Amino acid sequence: YTEAWDADKKSIHVMPDTPDILLAKANAANVSKKLYVQAWEEAKKKGYDMRADAIPIKTAKASRDIASDYKYKETHEKEKGHYIGCPSAKEDPKLAWAARAMALQNDRLYKKAYNDSKTQIHMPVDAMSVQAAKECQTLVSDVDYRQYLHQWTCLPDQNDVIHARQAYDLQSDNVYKSDLEWLRGIGWLTEGSVDVVKAKRAQELLNDRLYRTRPEQLKFTSIADSPDVVLAKTNAMQLSDV
C-alpha cells in the first residue's frame, strides 16, 4: 500500500532557485559566524605596519607623559633648593604666603583675641540682667523653697491622733499580713493542688493510649446470618472459579 508513496518520496526533486531555498541560503549566510568574521580574519593574516612617528603612537606617548607622576613632579624636584634672591625665609613671598595661610587656618590664633577679651568684661552690680538672674536663682533655689515647720506636740488621747493611728494600722503592710504569720514554716505538698490536678487532667486528655482503644481489645462477634454476610457469601460463590 505504501510502496508507491515511498518510491515517490525518493524521486521528488526541489529546484535550487526556488524562493524558499534562496531565502534559506540568505538567512544562513546572515547568521553564519564564519562569514561574519571572514573579512576580519583575512585582514589579520595580511598583518599591519605601524610606524613610530604615527599620530596614534605620538598621542599615546604624550598621554603617558602627562599622566606620569614622575614627569608631573620633575620640574618641582629640580627647583628644590634653588630659591635665589631672598636674604631670609621671611622675605620669600611663597614662604610668607604659606605662613599667612597657616595662621588663618590655626584655630588657636583665630580665637586668641576672643579669649583675651572674655576676661575683660565689666558689668555693674545693679544691672537688670544681674537682678533678674538673682531673682531666678532665688525662685529655683531648693534652700529657699523648703522651709521646715516646727515640731508639733500632740496629746496621745486626742481623737484625731487615735483616728490617725487606726488609719496607719489599716494601711500598714505588717498589720495587713499579720494573720498569715502562723503559716510561716509550715510544710505543704503540691499533691492535690489546683495546678497539679489541672496538669494531670490535661495529661489524660492528651494521652493517646487512653484516648484510642485498640481493635483487638473490643469484644465483637459478627452475626452469621446478617444480610451483608449472606450477600457477601453469595457473591463469593458466584465469582468462585471452582
Name the overall outline.
flat
Distance between the termini: 50 Å
Poorly predicted sequence stretches spanning 5 or more consecutive residues = none
Quickly give the structural class. Answer: mainly alpha
Written description of the protein model:
This protein is mainly alpha-helical and 242 residues long. Among the domains are: 18-47, no CATH class; 55-109, no CATH class. 60% of the residues lie in helices and 0% in strands. The chain has 17 helices and no strands. It has helices at 3-11, 19-31, 33-36, 38-46, 55-67, 69-72, 74-79, 93-105, 107-110, 112-118, 128-140, 142-145, 159-171, 173-176, 194-206, 208-211, 227-239. The protein is flat, with a radius of gyration of 58 Å. The mean pLDDT is 80. This is NEBU protein. Keywords: Actin-binding, Repeat. It comes from Oriolus oriolus.
Task: Spell out the key features of this protein.
242 residues; mainly alpha; 17 helices; 60% helix; Nebulin_repeat; Nebulin-like; repeat; actin filament binding
Structural topology:
Blueprint: H1 3-11, H2 19-31, H3 33-36, H4 38-46, H5 55-67, H6 69-72, H7 74-79, H8 93-105, H9 107-110, H10 112-118, H11 128-140, H12 142-145, H13 159-171, H14 173-176, H15 194-206, H16 208-211, H17 227-239
Protein name: NEBU protein
Keywords: Actin-binding, Repeat
Organism: Oriolus oriolus
